[in-house]
Amino acid sequence: MIAYLVRRIFLLPLTLFAIILVNFLILNLAPGDPVNQVNLSATGEATRATDEGGVTGDNQYLMFREHYGLTLPILFNTWPSLSTNVVRQGLEQLTTTQDLMSVQDYHELKTRWGDRAKYIMPHLLHEAQDTQNSLEWRKMAANLFIRGGIRQGHVGTTMSAKKRSENREISQTNLLLGGLRIQESDSQHILEQKTAGLTNWFEQTGGEATYTLEGWAKTEALFFQTRFFRYLSRVFTLDFGTLRNDSNKTVISEVTKRLKYSLTLAVIPMLLTFALCQVFGMYMALRQNQWPDYTLNISFLILFAIPIFVVAPFLIEKVALNNTFPLTKIPIPYSGFHSVSELYDTYTSSQRLADTILHLFLPLVAIMYGTLAVQARLSRTAFLEVLRQDHVRTARAKGLARIKILVKHVGRNGAITIVTSLAASLGVILGGSLIVETIFEINGFGRFFYDAILNRDYNVVLFSAFAGSFLTLIGYLVADIAYTLLDPRISLE
User: From CA 418, how far away is CA 432, in angstroms rounded?
Assistant: First the structure.
């Protein structure tokens, strides 16, 4: 078993890397910008809270994109190799097709060239200086040049003196370039003056030798100056970033806050389902083709067919509202993980446990009924197969007690199928139960990740995919180990 575990642990990072790569590609290749946000203007119209093409560089979402590498290409960075002809074609598109494209398409085109500007600054400056180009062409080239020159400063509460010094230099440079930004109303004379200022700054900071990548620098940019490498380098240090709308809140801290809610709503139903499906499955198998078997089969089939968004409101309206627990006067709670904080904080430990159990009664029923219906029917099939095997008949022939046969021989072997099914569900712990958490007002992972998808919170979505994949792989590893404990005939060697 040791050799097997070593192999699995060695393969786990490779498998996880492949899963991360696929999820990363799907998210980044999906239509739309990962950091677009739709707001309502004062007139009630939908507006996008993004910088106009990412040219000015003074927008908080541009800063977010820069910090997390979203301005870089996804896997391979070939932008330093763009030729003059390709740059001219891009400028032609930007200056001649605006009226022929939708607002969204033109915005994406402008953002794309704004992201590339950092690697083609000599080409852009040359186009801005060329008096043979049209005025609009030169203005576009100059503003893209400014976009390429603007940098984002270091962030954090514990910066070194060197980083603080660099931030001051970056701030001065950004202020200088921002003052030279070309306005639509600028005349040719003003354009010439600002272009001369940009040329002077370009030469003072190193000229083409600084802003043209050659040799190893170009190779390094090809593989390492990409979104995926930037993200992977942060994953290796367990830095999963911050929330999109609040840089003071990290993804890990927000997930940790919700850990107890989603763990409770995932692990407890998993364990209860395993125990109950063993009981129901065994009972149906022993009463095969009898009325208890037919009754339970039909009941579980009906339960499986009823969607959770119907059952959860039904439980609240018909079971909880204006009702109490049987034989008590305790009202049935239907919202929250426990009572309000003002009241919950005054309880003793035993009272808090009882209060939480009461509040979780309906959510657990809503989560479990569908899974129990499936697993019980699956367990019945597994037990029927085991009951027909030779070793069970041999045990009966030896005169072993019925209960011992059912528990030691039938139960342990039949449980292997259920363990396999439940192991894969370990990965949904972070997914939580969106509908249950929403209807019963529980602040778990389901609502958190759902809101992240709606808000296009890039870091949270990537973390959910990473953590879910990791837990699923761990679940399968635990299941393999459980096989050897349940059935001595199974060897992992």
Answer: 21
Whether residue 297 contacts residue 374, with contact meaning beta carbons closer than 8 Å, is answered with: no
Mean pLDDT of the 422-444 span: 72
Q: Note whether 414 and 454 are same-domain residues.
A: yes
Residue 462 structure tokens: 């990537």
Q: Give residue 293's domain range.
A: 256-486
Same domain, 287 and 214: no
The single-letter code of the amino acid at 99 is D
Which residue is it, tokens 């950004």?
174
Q: Mean pLDDT of all residues in the chain?
A: 82
The share of the chain scoring above pLDDT 90, in percent, equals 18
Q: What is the CATH number of the domain that holds 346?
A: 1.10.3720.10
Task: Give the whole-angstrom CA distance, residue 288 versus residue 290.
Answer: 5
457 and 316 in a common domain:
yes
198 pLDDT band, cuts 50/70/90, is very high
Using CA atoms, how far residue 455 sits from 26, 244, 265, 459, in Å, is 17, 9, 25, 11
Task: For residue 107, give both structure tokens.
Answer: 């915005």
Mind listing the pLDDT tens digit for each residue in 278-335? 889 889 988 888 998 999 999 999 988 888 888 888 888 888 887 888 878 888 888 8
Question: Is residue 171 within 8 Å of 154, Cβ to Cβ?
Answer: no
Predicted confidence at residue 139, as pLDDT, reads 93
Using alpha carbons, list the distances in angstroms from residue 19 to 15, 16, 326.
6, 5, 48
Residue 8 inside a domain? The answer is no
In this structure, are 124 and 185 located in the same domain? yes
Domain assignment present for 201: yes
